[in-house]
Each structure stands twice: as C-alpha cells, then as structure tokens.
C-alpha cells in the first residue's frame, strides 16, 4: 500500500474547505506509487487526486507547481494543481506538503498502439516547444554529472565486465556531450514512462507525475520516452512505433543537426541512467517503505541492445506533417 501517511475523512473534509470544489463524498487510498501518499477524493462537484509528499526537497515543490500551471495554461493534457480560495496551490496537511489535482480519466497503456505513440509524440513535441519559454529553473538531478559521481557507489556490486561497461560508457558520454552546448534546453518531464500517462482508447487524457521534472536537454527527455515506448520485450525497437512516435514529435519540434548526430548515444545514456538509478535503489539507497525495487537488469540489457544494434534512422523530413 502506497499510503504512508493515513488520513481520516474528517481531516480531508476540513482540508477541502480551503477550496471551492464542494464537500467530501468519498476518500480512497491509492495502492501504487513509490515515494508519496496518494488519495482519490470525490466531492459533490468532481473527482480529484490528493498527494502528500513524504520525502524530497520541499523547497523544489514551487517549481513543479509553476511548471504544471504553465503547461496547463498552454493546453497540454497536464493536471494543473487546484488553487485554494486565496489562489494558493501548495498546502500543508498532516504535517506534509500537499497538492490537490483534478483526476483525469483513463488507464496506462501496457502495449502502446501506433495511434497512442503518435498522440504521445505529438503531445511531447508540443510540450517541449512551449517549455523552452518556461522561466523556472531546476537542474537535472540525473544528468551526466550525476552519472559520473554516482557510478562509484555501485561498482563494488558489479561484475568486472559490468564495471568496465559502465565506466567506459560514462567516459564516452563525457567526451561526446562535453561540447554539445547547443542542445536545445527546456523544462522536461524526466520520467515519461507509459505508467505516467493516461489514455481513453487512443486519446491521451493525461500526462502525470512530474516530480522528476527539471530543466535539461530536450533530447534527454525524448530518449527516455523512446526507450520505453518503442522497445519490445527483448529490448529491440519496434520500427512502426519508433517511426510513429518520432514522426509525430518532429512534426512539432524537428531535431537539429547536433541532436540527430547525438541521438544514438543519448539513447544509450538514458538507458544507463535507469540501470544505475535502479542499482542504487537495490544496493545503496533502498526505498524508505516496503516496496519492491525495479529490476536493474532490464536497463542493463537495453543498454547492451543499443550498443549492439544502434538506433534506427530517424523518420525522414518528408514524413512530417506541418503543425501549428
């Protein structure tokens, strides 16, 4: 159960008095998640998600609030936080920072269809295009500098072959990306896996869980998405999904020449990012709660596949449709 701080109906009913969203009807703890306490809240005026933040830096929460407000104002399918009667979104409840969001309908796609890949690529392209004008700043906590520092924490748990693989890869990234100063930057999601989206059929109803959001390379964000959304069970690319997602993305934001040249290496770097972060959870910094860590081997294998097979060609410019 991912409710680490239980709440009573009376606590939540009193909390809701701060907002103009009606009175409490039902309160339900959400049995998923790894870091925060989450509840479904139904009032006589609608359905909402209440999140209590259990760990992390609370001084970073205003960045997330501002980013979600900004993206929602630009008509992205993002749940902008609910503001109270005084215009304040970030609250306190049960001695925890708290945010209330509209609850979007839909389910996470387990095996994305081509239509879902196109819709997600289009939405991500639109998000990256407008996020370049977002004024908030939060450094990427999982960037190349972090990889170089964090690798030393897991080396003693790896085989000699994996030690060489990780060390050689990070050395390569430092050479390749060290002079890549013209990679487009903006606000990124930072963790846009399938389970951070909601679909009703082939309609994208929501992009959720922005708590890895930060300022960084847009290509980094795109590579995380493509590795998850377009890989088959063996880690190979599904060419049709790959083309659908990247074609729709580039119709909104075409990659520049530097991004195109660095694309295969960025796919490797983001694969290693998750291999390393999952190793840290297993061996160094286990979750504070009784939760099963994700398998680091999945992304170790994905990295090996990217090294062996590279990346398929990016869809040609002629495949892009014009987009407003």
Structural description of this entry:
The protein has 324 residues and is α+β, with helices and mostly antiparallel strands. It has two domains: 9-102, Phosphorylase Kinase, domain 1, CATH 3.30.200; 114-319, Aminoglycoside phosphotransferase (APH), C-terminal lobe (Aminoglycoside 3'-phosphotransferase, Chain: A, domain 2), CATH 3.90.1200. The chain is built from nine helices and nine strands. The strands form three sheets. A five-stranded antiparallel β-sheet has the order 1-2-3-5-4, covered by helices on one side. Strands 6-9 form a two-stranded antiparallel ribbon. A two-stranded antiparallel ribbon has the order 7-8. Strand 1 and strand 2 form a beta hairpin. The longest helix has 28 residues, at 257-284. The radius of gyration is 20 Å and the shape is globular.
Our Rg estimate from Cα atoms comes to: 20 Å
User: Which residue ranges are poorly predicted, with pLDDT under 50 across at least 5 consecutive positions?
Assistant: none
Mean pLDDT, rounded to whole units? 93
CATH class term of the largest domain: Alpha Beta
CATH superfamily of the largest domain, by name, is: Aminoglycoside phosphotransferase (APH), C-terminal lobe
Strand order of the largest sheet: 1-2-3-5-4
Number of helices: 9
Domain Aminoglycoside phosphotransferase: 27-255
Keywords: Amino-acid biosynthesis, ATP-binding, Kinase, Nucleotide-binding, Threonine biosynthesis, Transferase
InterPro entries: Aminoglycoside_PTrfase, Homoserine_kinase_II, Kinase-like_dom_sf, Pseudomonas-type_ThrB
GO molecular function, one term: homoserine kinase activity
